[in-house]
Amino acid sequence: MIAEDPAFAGKLGDTIAQLDGILKSVDEGSGTFGQLLVNRALYDHADQAFNQAQELVKSVREDPKKYLVIRMKIF
Questions:
Q1: How many domains does the chain have?
Q2: Does any domain span residue 57?
Q3: Which residues of 44-69 are buried (b: 16+ CB within 10 A; e: fewer)?
Q4: Does the predicted model carry a pTM greater than 0.70?
Q5: pLDDT over 90 for what percent of the chain?
Q6: Domain range enclosing 29
């Protein structure tokens, strides 16, 4: 398809160039993903937050009444 359609080949080349630029900026530590790769403390804190969120979900599933209280008031 690349040999038959020069427009497609051009778009593919542009896409590869954009991906290359994105990957270079991530590799340099730019943006969230880049910081997760180069900043170990940020990675550790994010990992800890995900673990705590998993524990909370597990705890809510085990004892939902402890966390969910429904109150109804009529007038």
A1: 1
A2: yes
A3: eeeeeeeeeeeeeeeeeeeeeeeeee
A4: no
A5: 44
A6: 6-63
